[in-house]
């Protein structure tokens, strides 16, 4: 009986961020409805287009936040995610640009083959770049035994510098060298209409399901929670903390690579190494709003996705209502603090 | 306000009185009509098993939580704390097991923290210094330098800093919560001298401890709590140990140290010249199947480090570890793979992942049986853990409950359940009965005996000599990191063990 109750309350709390998303959506919907009817125009918030746009915007932060969730559960942090996203976008743009020119002969003989090869190379290259960024972060943290905050603060700047070195100080443009199927990845209104939302959103959802199952049903997932919850215990139980942590950062790096690909297509086939600054804070905010604890050991994929959506709903809602940019920032800031406060309250309630 | 000596001359009015205290947390009645009286210049032992309500009672006293009903008075004045600061104003100080000190600040700064002498907000060190010196002298420790950062002091000296802080705040009642659990022999002696001085100064002392011998040696009176009620109170001189134990447990405990017959078999663990960074040094030791080998020594003698080095949690400087005749590299992964398991002395920070569930904590070191192609069978794992829980009588709402919500004794059982679940051949147990109550201790001893009877080898580190003498087949004594002597238990006595442990002190300069 009491077992059922405690499980039920656990379930209810794990739904908290999702509930928050519903509340925020309803609030903005209601305000927008009032504002719009006051101005005598059609309300726009509760429309399919609106949903398409919100999910589409959320997918960039969301996909990077999948990796950040892993890192935060494992007791780490990654401040370099933003610039790493920009760096991977730059790499992808660079690979497309250079590859397109390099494959000029091949493209003439068999255009399809050449395009497939080019995209495979560029995307794989992007994902590997992200993965390498993660390897650098995880490796430095583990081998130098430094605090993740400091290491990634350093690599945050370094990755931007590397990106600027590759790009030669100007954004890398690959306009017209990217096949449509890739370029339209982040088109909010997908071309075969039955997709409903952009392919980027679908990819994010599939990846989210995979990570979520991985956290719950694999040994690796248990180990991630273990090292974040208590590293000493993990060591005592024979878990290879160094390997696990490096793997976590590398995996998160792959998601950074996917986010970089999104960033590249959002900019219309351009890689700008300075376009990522500040993005890491949104990614971290998504995880924290979703119930992730910066002390490690706690976090969930459902929560993180809800967090990412809450941020974009606020942005989108503010735009529709006509609230200026800076108020959005204040609002998102307050939501972050509120989310953490509620979480603290929950812990206090459960331990008493 | 009354001074302590005034209340001393009026023995009828207790220095501290709590009456009819009740407190309920959700469904549990933590305290039920508890009355408690303490006279000035007396040391009162507060005894009870884990969860009996000792900590809750002291939380009510310190203002950390408020009682549902009941009244309190200090030196005749009604006392209604609204928070920890009102306790301090009333002259009540708590010395907790985990000390509340800022490690980077000096002894003086820690003692004066929150009650600094100042002139218009400017720190007046010239006023503070003599007060601090005087208090340290009063405690009989003038050698403690006020400028030393507390982080550099040993645990025993840190405790003194907390006591000094209490004296500076004019405390008339000082509560000690398990103060000796992290101290070794001679430090315990020194602490008892300090508490004796406090008593002679007319301060009322509440002393919470699991060690009945300590209580008998130090205290004048006792109050036993059981299930949130007072099970007995009186003067220690009129009571026997057995009486107190039966008040604590609510029944006669047949055996404090149950044993299970077992016989030693083949050699399983063999240490050769094992040395760590500082301690241990050059240890040669053998352990057999079906044997319980105790490891005694003072704090800092290298007992814990010995276990940690051979398990690979601390770097090994020299020497080899053979498990069943094969040299193994000391790394937790390989040691677990070759059949070793360790229970950490530090349940909170190392032994258990407090936020995680029982299921996770028990199975972390052995997920293999529930894994197919890297995927976990959660149902199977949960069932196995439920079996572990009923075998060890772990009291928890469900296997999914987080370990932090369990009592100390049950947490320790979870830590033991993990090494049993691991099905290891060699159990390395570091202070496995620290901070748990008498009843649970007896269960742990029986468990250790059963493991030996099942052909497992047990290396049992403890600071509590009586349990080593009662449970082990052989006892090894370490001093200053070196192995002093290994003997059959029958050839040791409490005195010879302590002499051997101390004897090492002067031997190495």
Could you explain the architecture of this structure?
Chain A has 352 residues and is mainly α. Chain A has helices at residues 2-14, 16-39, 48-73, 81-102, 104-109, 111-143, 148-167, 180-183, 199-217, 219-229, 231-236, 241-266, 279-289, 301-321, 325-351; strands spanning 172-173, 270-271. Chain A has a two-stranded antiparallel sheet. The mean pLDDT of chain A is 88. By secondary structure, chain B is α/β, with parallel strands linked by helices. Chain B contains 18 helices and 24 strands. A 6-stranded mixed sheet of chain B has the order 6-9-10-3-11-12, with helices on both faces. In chain B, a hairpin with a 2-residue loop joins strand 11 and strand 12.
For this entry, give a set of tags:
A: 352 residues, mainly alpha, 15 helices, globular, B: 509 residues, 6-stranded mixed beta sheet, 18 helices, 35% helix
Give helix and strand order of chain A, one letter per element, not per position. HHHHHHHEHHHHHEHHH
Shape of chain B: globular
The SS-based structural class of chain A is mainly alpha
Low-confidence stretches of chain B: 1-12, 505-509
End-to-end Cα distance of chain B, whole Å, is 53 Å
Which oligomeric state applies? Answer: heterodimer
Estimate what percentage of residues of chain A fall within beta strands: under 5%
Give the helix tally of chain A: 15
CA distance, first residue to last residue of chain A: 19 Å
Note the main sheet of chain B: 6 strands, mixed
């Amino acid at each position: 009986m009491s077992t059922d109750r405690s499980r039920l309350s656990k379930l209810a709390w794990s739904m908290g961020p999702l509930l928050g998303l519903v509340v925020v959506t309803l609030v903005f919907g209601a305000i927008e409805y009032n504002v719009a009817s006051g101005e005598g125009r059609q309300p726009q918030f509760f429309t399919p287009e609106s949903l398409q746009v919100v999910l589409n915007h959320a997918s960039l932060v969301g996909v990077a936040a999948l990796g950040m969730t892993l890192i935060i559960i494992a007791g780490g942090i990654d401040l370099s995610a933003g610039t790493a996203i920009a760096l991977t976008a730059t790499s992808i743009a660079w690979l497309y640009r250079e590859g397109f020119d390099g494959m000029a002969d091949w493209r003439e003989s068999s255009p399809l083959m050449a395009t497939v090869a080019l995209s495979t190379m560029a995307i794989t290259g992007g994902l590997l770049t992200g993965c390498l960024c993660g390897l650098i972060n995880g490796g430095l943290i583990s081998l130098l035994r430094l605090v993740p905050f400091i290491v990634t603060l350093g690599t945050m700047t370094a990755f931007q510098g590397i990106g600027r070195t590759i790009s030669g100080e100007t954004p890398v443009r690959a306009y017209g060298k990217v096949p449509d199927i890739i370029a339209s990845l982040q088109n909010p209104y997908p071309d075969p209409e039955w997709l409903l939302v952009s392919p980027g959103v679908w990819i994010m959802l599939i990846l989210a399901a995979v990570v979520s199952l991985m956290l719950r049903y694999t040994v690796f997932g248990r180990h991630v929670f273990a090292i974040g919850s208590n590293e000493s215990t993990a060591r005592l139980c024979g878990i290879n903390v160094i390997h696990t942590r490096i793997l976590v950062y590398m995996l998160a790096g792959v998601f950074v690579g996917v986010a970089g690909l999104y960033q590249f297509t959002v900019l219309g086939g351009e890689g700008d190494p300075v376009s990522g600054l500040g993005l890491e804070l949104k990614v971290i905010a998504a995880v924290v709003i979703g119930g992730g604890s910066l002390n490690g050991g706690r976090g969930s994929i459902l929560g993180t996705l809800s967090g990412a959506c809450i941020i974009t709903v606020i942005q989108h809602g503010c735009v529709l209502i006509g609230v200026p940019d800076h108020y959005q920032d204040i609002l998102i800031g307050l939501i972050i603090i509120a989310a953490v406060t509620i979480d603290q309250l929950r812990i206090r309630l459960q331990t008493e | 306000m009354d001074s302590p000596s005034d209340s001393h001359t009026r023995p009828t009015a207790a220095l501290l009185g709590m009456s009819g205290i009740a407190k309920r947390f959700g469904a549990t009645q933590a305290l039920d009509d508890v009355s408690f009286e303490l006279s000035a210049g007396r040391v009162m032992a507060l005894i009870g098993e884990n969860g009996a309500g000792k900590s809750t009672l002291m939380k009510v006293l310190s203002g950390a939580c408020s009682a549902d009903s009941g009244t309190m008075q200090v030196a005749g004045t009604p006392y209604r704390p609204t928070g920890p600061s009102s306790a301090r104003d009333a002259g009540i100080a708590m010395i907790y097991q985990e000390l509340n000190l800022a490690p980077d600040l000096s002894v003086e700064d820690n003692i004066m923290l929150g009650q600094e002498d100042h002139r218009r907000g400017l720190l007046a060190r010239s006023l503070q210094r003599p007060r601090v010196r005087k208090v340290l002298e009063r405690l009989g420790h003038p050698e403690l330098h006020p400028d030393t950062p507390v982080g550099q002091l040993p645990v025993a000296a840190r405790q003194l800093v907390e006591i000094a802080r209490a004296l500076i705040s004019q405390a008339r009642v000082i509560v000690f919560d398990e103060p000796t659990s992290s101290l070794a022999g001679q430090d315990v002696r020194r602490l008892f001298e300090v508490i004796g001085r406090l008593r002679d100064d007319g301060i009322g002392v509440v002393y919470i401890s699991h060690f009945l011998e300590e209580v008998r040696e130090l205290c004048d009176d006792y109050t036993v709590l059981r299930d949130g009620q007072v099970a007995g109170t009186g003067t220690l001189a009129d009571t026997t140990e057995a009486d107190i134990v039966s008040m604590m447990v609510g029944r006669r405990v047949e055996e404090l140290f149950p044993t299970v017959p077992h016989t030693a078999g083949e050699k399983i663990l063999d240490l050769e010249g094992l040395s760590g960074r500082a301690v241990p040094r050059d240890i040669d030791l053998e352990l057999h199947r079906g044997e319980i080998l105790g490891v005694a020594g003072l704090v800092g003698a290298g007992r814990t480090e010995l276990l940690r080095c051979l398990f690979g949690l601390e770097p090994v400087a020299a020497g080899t570890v053979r498990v069943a005749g094969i040299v193994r590299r000391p790394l937790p992964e390989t040691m677990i793979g070759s059949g070793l398991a360790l229970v950490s002395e530090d349940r909170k920070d190392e032994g258990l992942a407090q936020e995680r569930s029982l299921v996770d904590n028990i199975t972390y070191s052995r997920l293999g049986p529930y894994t197919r192609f890297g995927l976990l069978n959660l149902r199977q794992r949960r069932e196995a853990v439920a079996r572990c829980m009923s075998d060890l009588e772990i009291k928890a709402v469900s296997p999914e409950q987080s370990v932090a919500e369990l009592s100390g004794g049950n947490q320790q059982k979870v830590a033991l359940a993990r090494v049993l679940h691991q099905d290891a051949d060699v159990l390395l147990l570091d202070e496995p009965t620290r901070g748990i109550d008498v009843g649970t201790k007896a269960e742990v001893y029986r468990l250790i005996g059963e493991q030996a009877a099942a052909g497992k080898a047990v290396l049992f580190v403890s600071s509590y000599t009586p349990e080593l003498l009662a449970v082990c087949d052989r006892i090894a004594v370490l001093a200053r990191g070196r192995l002093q002597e290994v003997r059959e238990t029958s050839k040791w006595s409490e005195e010879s063990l302590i002499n051997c442990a101390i004897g090492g002190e002067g031997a190495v300069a």
